[in-house]
Automatic annotation (TrEMBL):
Lineage, uppermost ranks: Bacteria, Bacillati, Bacillota, Bacilli, Lactobacillales
Location in the cell: Cell membrane
GO biological process, one term: cell division
Principal subcellular localisation of the protein: membrane
One Pfam family cited in the UniProt record for this chain: FtsX_ECD
Name under which the protein is recorded: Cell division protein FtsX
InterPro entries membership: ABC3_permease_C, FtsX, FtsX_ECD, FtsX_firmicutes-type
Keywords of the record: Cell cycle, Cell division, Cell membrane, Membrane, Transmembrane, Transmembrane helix
């Protein structure tokens, strides 16, 4: 296509949006509502996956060491733990450190257990390379000499892994379904606007305009409709998420879970919404035009 012809089509597509008035507003509104729904749910699902990943990584194996175990034996336990397949990191927590943690959580009433009255054990806190390896690592750690027990949450951890897997699977399914819904609604809305202008297309064919000459203004108009329809969702998603992040981050400060930082992913959602609007708008217009351009 020649540069001059493309500029003419571009100008004509913008004029058509203005000329069609309420029909253009209706099409852009349908795109806006659809993309707003896609943007909000994608933001939620991405954060659900992020927190699910944090929950998985928060599950650790606590290897409890027998009382009376000397320093040499404690070091030997660590050496044997490092040889277990799947172990990522090992940290030692003494009886006194364990008691300090309890006092910090439950209050000063537990101070009376200091010194020889401390009923707690020395512990190795083990992080695994993959959450699915937690149970295997715990079972192998139990068999090490001078290990009293190895705990990972038992049934609760198994349920947690199952829930996390379910959330991630359904999150992916919902995201794909949303994109299909967006394709269906936007392309059909564009198709309705073209159907209302079939007489205009017929006149252009009668005066000898080629198919490409007729098609391009409509394709560009569909792209403009998708782009304009994406602007409001992009603004609302960005403003809404920044507000939600500021509020919810305070509630999560006391936990090891964090929401996605706005600057890390919002631009990707913005770009995705704009691309979805433009591509689907243009494709919807192009496919709808095919019906009227058949000889």
């Amino acid at each position: 296509m020649k540069k001059l012809t493309f500029k003419r089509h571009l100008a004509e597509s913008l004029k058509s949006l203005k000329r069609n008035g309420w029909m253009s507003v209706a099409a852009i509104s349908a795109v806006t509502v659809t993309l707003l729904l896609v943007g909000v749910l994608l933001s939620i699902l991405l954060n659900v996956n992020k927190i699910a990943h944090d929950v998985e990584n928060d599950v650790q194996v606590r290897v409890i060491i027998d009382r009376g175990t000397n320093e040499k034996q404690i070091k030997q336990i660590k050496q044997k733990l490092t040889k277990i397949d799947g172990v990522k990191k090992i940290e030692f927590s003494s009886r006194s450190e364990e008691l300090k943690n309890i006092i910090g959580v439950y209050g000063n009433d537990f101070r009376l257990f200091r010194g020889d009255s401390n009923p707690l054990y020395d512990v190795y806190v083990v992080d695994t390379k993959s959450p699915s390896q937690t149970i295997t690592v715990a079972n192998k750690a139990k068999k090490i000499k001078n290990v009293y027990d190895a705990r990972y949450g038992g049934i609760a951890a198994k349920k947690l892994f199952k829930v996390v897997g379910t959330v991630q699977r359904w999150g992916a399914i919902i995201s794909i379904l949303l994109l299909f819904v967006a394709v269906f609604l936007i392309s059909n809305t564009i198709r309705i606007t073209i159907l209302s202008r079939k007489d205009e297309i017929g006149i252009m064919r009668l005066v000898g305009a080629t198919n490409n000459y007729i098609r391009w203004p409509f394709v560009l108009e569909g792209a403009w409709t998708g782009l304009f329809g994406a602007i409001i969702p992009i603004v609302l998603v960005d403003v809404g998420y920044n507000w939600a992040y500021a509020v919810l981050s305070k509630s999560l400060e006391s936990t090891s879970y964090r929401l996605l930082v706005p600057g890390q992913f919002l631009w990707q959602i913005d770009l995705l919404l704009a691309v979805i609007g433009i591509v689907i708008g243009a494709l919807g217009a192009g496919v709808s035009m095919s019906k009227f351009l058949k000889i």
